[in-house]
Amino acid sequence: DADVTQTPRNRITKTGKRIMLECSQTKGHDRMYWYRQDPGLGLRLIYYSFDVKDINKGEISDGYSVSRQAQAKFSLSLESAIPNQTALYFCATSDGGNQNTEAFFGQGTRLTVV
Amino acid sequence: GEDVEQSLFLSVREGDSSVINCTYTDSSSTYLYWYKQEPGAGLQLLTYIFSNMDMKQDQRLTVLLNKKDKHLSLRIADTQTGDSAIYFCAEGYDYKLSFGAGTTVTVRA
Fold first, then answer.
1. Nearest residue to A52 (alpha-carbon basis) of A9, A96, A18
2. What is the chain A residue with the closest CA to B100?
3. Which of B5, B8, B47, B99 should one mutate to test binding to chain A, selecting the residue with the greatest count of A CBs within 10 A?
4. In what order do the strands lie in the sheet with B71-76?
5. What SS3 class is residue A84?
6. Which residues on adjacent β-strands are paired with residue A73?
7. B12 vs B93, which has greater pLDDT?
8. Among all residues of chain B, which has the CA nearest to that of A42?
9. Which residues of B touch A43 (CB under 8 A)?
10. What 3-state DSSP class applies to A83?
11. Confidence (pLDDT) at A98
12. Which of A79, A96, B100, B106 has its Cβ near the most Cβ atoms within 10 Å?
């Protein structure tokens, strides 16, 4: 089983719909992140969390919200999806106990907004 | 991200060496990383180097860091077809990783 699991793996949704992407981890890490990947832009940080109920905005948080109700879970919501949110979304975790910020990634969720 | 830059494409013949280059801007970065993304998969850490090192070798991989020029490179010796992927350079400081746009490496026979 993967250490960082994202559901769903693929999703097509309509403009204006609310959608939630789920992430769960078995690594016991405190820190969790949501990134989006767009061709030619690399990964950009949407939100991150250092602990349960701790929420911090990343580089591109507008149009997104997150929830961290348990250490192992970090969900990303699009309240009203728009086509330019079509992207590949990655959840990641890291151990906050040292300066090595190695991140462990999920398999990604491919979201298409039509 | 705009703080980390890398070329977008590299084509290399099987058996040759690949060199992927990266420049970064944040001199406070503690660690610098190379991640590999295979088609349909997430990113996996390939190797990393601590900012006070010049070089790190790990089997076929050699990482060179020029801290003065803020330049990082990844050399893959004896490149194989399984090395075809997107390679991301990333810099890390405290909690945050900043990624480059990724270099797509294509290995041709």
1. A96
2. A42
3. B99
4. B4-6, B18-24, B71-76, B61-66, B55-58
5. helix
6. A24, A70
7. B12
8. B101
9. 1, 43, 88, 99
10. helix
11. 63
12. B100
Is A42 in contact with B88 (Cβ distance < 8 A)? Answer: yes
Q: Does B48 touch chain A (CB under 8 A)?
A: yes
Backbone angles phi, psi at A19, to 5 degrees: -140, 145
- B88 shares contact with chain A (CB less than 8 Å): yes
d(CA B74, CA B56): 10
Q: Please write the tens of the pLDDT for every residue from B51-80.
A: 889 999 999 999 999 999 999 999 999 999
User: Structure tokens of A78?
Assistant: 């699009």
Encoded amino acid at B80, one letter: Q
- Tokens representing residue A3 in the block: 């250490």
Token pair of B107, please? 């290995």
> Which residues of chain A are within 8 Å of residue B88 when distances are taken between CB atoms?
42-43
DSSP A29: -
Which residue type sits at A51?
Answer: D
What amino acid occupies position A79?
E
A35 forms beta bridges with A45, A90
Residues of chain A with pLDDT below 50 are none
- Does A43 reach chain B within 8 Å, measured CB to CB? yes
Query: Which residue in the set B4, B8, B45 is minimally distant from A102, CB to CB?
Result: B45
